[in-house]
């Protein structure tokens, strides 16, 4: 298991050997020829062509003299995520070619630090006898550089760790305890609500968790802003630690990754940690519904009618549409204090993945200006989302003949939209709200994105919040 606070960075230290890491714009032939020197024909013959992503070590009289990495200056932080696997052990000092650095050394270092740290992440539970970790290279950078990149990388590592943890080690109680520790460590006041208090306050959420021997827990964290005028932000996350589908049982192929069904709660927790660590002037609330959707004589059944915190009654059309039931009560409570903005996140629908694939979280919002702000922040942070509509004509698809609504649409289409419309029923008119339907996982390894748990939209949402909402 990774140790999230300890990033692969070190401060400059006199007397210790370092190596230069030359970062050059892809295709800059003159700069590359100067760096490669008389070894250029030899290195070119081995396939180094100076294209984006190309890497080579520079030979020296006593071994390695340095390294060269080629990049497109507009590519963002992720290409740097390839470096931890390419560089040998040692302390590496980045040296930017002018076309990459431009006039802003700090911005260039932010991207390098963030991408490098995201790429260096590892998770494992192997015993010491079976695992010999590879000694990782470190970037040698003064501590005053990359503050935001460091805190975002720490938040991403912590989030990835939680998602990657097997469900037997990360049930509702363990997720709630981890969230409490992370939030309190950053100055928040935290309450864990469970047992009868939870059943009274969050009856619909409690019904989802009733089928498991591992009881549901709701985490409520609060931290005031630095000023009385601080905008009030309320975060809500779906924390289904494992989802069998309930009586509407998932097939085995669909259940294999269901430890990641708490990815929405993890995203909101990582965002809260980043906001607090950055000391943004935001009055913050966070609510996480930590449950397990399982099967037993106590589990909810298809056709059951549940009463929500809001008082609306919901017919259970499908027990595998449990995430929206978890969020319904939490959104209702979050809106009671009338915050300036509510953001919720959930690994909610397969329909969003069919529409947008694994890399693009779906964004829904009842405020077009807010949606545009979040989308722009995602573009600038190289952490994109894609907006889908809250198409009002589909709202009636969630109607029920015996209750106020059903948790399942009557049509086998637009599943991500109808799920968002269901959630909107628990958001009061006039309350600004954004909903993120995310995947929370990397199916394959890429630079900066190791296979496994992922906190997609973390950087986008952090930027949106830091720029004001």
UniProtKB/TrEMBL annotation:
GO terms for molecular function: aminopeptidase activity. CDD domains: Peptidase_M17 (cd00433). Gene3D superfamilies: Leucine Aminopeptidase, subunit E, domain 1 (3.40.220.10), Zn peptidases (3.40.630.10). Signal peptide: none annotated. Pfam families: Peptidase_M17, Peptidase_M17_N_1. InterPro entries: Leucine_aapep/pepB, Macro_dom-like, Peptidase_M17_C, Peptidase_M17_N_1. Belongs to the peptidase M17 family. This is Leucyl aminopeptidase family protein.
């Amino acid at each position: 298991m990774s140790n999230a606070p300890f990033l692969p960075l070190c401060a400059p230290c006199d007397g210790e050997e370092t190596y230069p890491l030359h970062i050059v714009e892809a295709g800059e032939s003159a700069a590359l020829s100067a760096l490669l020197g008389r070894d250029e024909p030899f290195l070119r013959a081995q396939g180094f062509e100076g294209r984006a992503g190309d890497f080579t070590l520079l030979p020296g009289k006593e071994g390695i003299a340095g390294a060269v990495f080629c990049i497109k200056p507009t590519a963002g932080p992720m290409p740097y995520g390839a470096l931890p696997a390419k560089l040998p052990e040692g302390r590496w000092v980045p040296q930017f070619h002018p076309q990459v650095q431009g006039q802003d050394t700090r911005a260039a270092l932010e991207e390098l630090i963030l991408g490098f740290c995201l790429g260096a992440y590892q998770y494992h539970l192997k015993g010491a006898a079976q695992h010999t970790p590879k000694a990782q290279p470190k970037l040698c950078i003064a501590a005053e550089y990359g503050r935001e990149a460091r805190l975002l990388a720490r938040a991403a590592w912590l989030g990835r760790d939680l998602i990657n943890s097997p469900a037997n080690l990360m049930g509702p109680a363990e997720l709630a305890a981890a969230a409490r520790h992370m939030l309190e460590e950053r100055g928040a006041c935290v309450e864990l609500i469970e047992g009868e208090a939870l059943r009274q306050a969050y009856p619909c959420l409690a019904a989802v968790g009733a089928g498991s021997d591992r009881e549901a827990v709701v985490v409520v964290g609060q931290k005031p802003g630095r000023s009385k005028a601080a905008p009030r932000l309320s975060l809500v996350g779906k924390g289904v630690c494992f989802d069998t589908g309930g009586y509407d049982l998932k097939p085995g192929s669909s259940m294999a990754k269901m430890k990641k069904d708490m990815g929405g709660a993890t995203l909101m927790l990582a965002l809260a940690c980043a906001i607090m660590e950055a000391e943004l002037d935001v009055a913050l609330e966070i609510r996480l519904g930590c449950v397990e959707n399982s099967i037993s004589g106590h589990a909810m059944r298809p056709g059951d009618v549940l009463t929500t915190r809001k008082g609306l009654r919901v017919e259970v059309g499908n027990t595998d549409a449990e995430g929206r039931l978890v969020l319904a009560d939490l959104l209702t409570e979050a809106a009671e204090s009338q915050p300036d903005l509510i953001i919720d996140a959930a690994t909610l629908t397969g329909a969003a993945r069919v529409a947008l694939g694994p890399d693009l979280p779906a964004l829904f919002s009842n405020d077009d200006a807010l949606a545009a702000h979040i989308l722009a922040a995602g573009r600038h942070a190289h952490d994109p989302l894609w907006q889908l509509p809250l198409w009002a004509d589909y709202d009636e698809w969630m109607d029920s003949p015996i209750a106020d609504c059903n948790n399942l649409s009557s049509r086998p289409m637009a599943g991500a939209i109808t799920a968002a419309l269901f959630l909107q029923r628990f958001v009061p008119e006039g309350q600004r709200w954004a909903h993120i339907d995310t995947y929370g996982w990397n199916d394959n390894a890429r630079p900066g994105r190791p296979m496994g748990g992922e906190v997609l939209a973390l950087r986008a949402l952090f930027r949106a919040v830091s720029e004001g909402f």
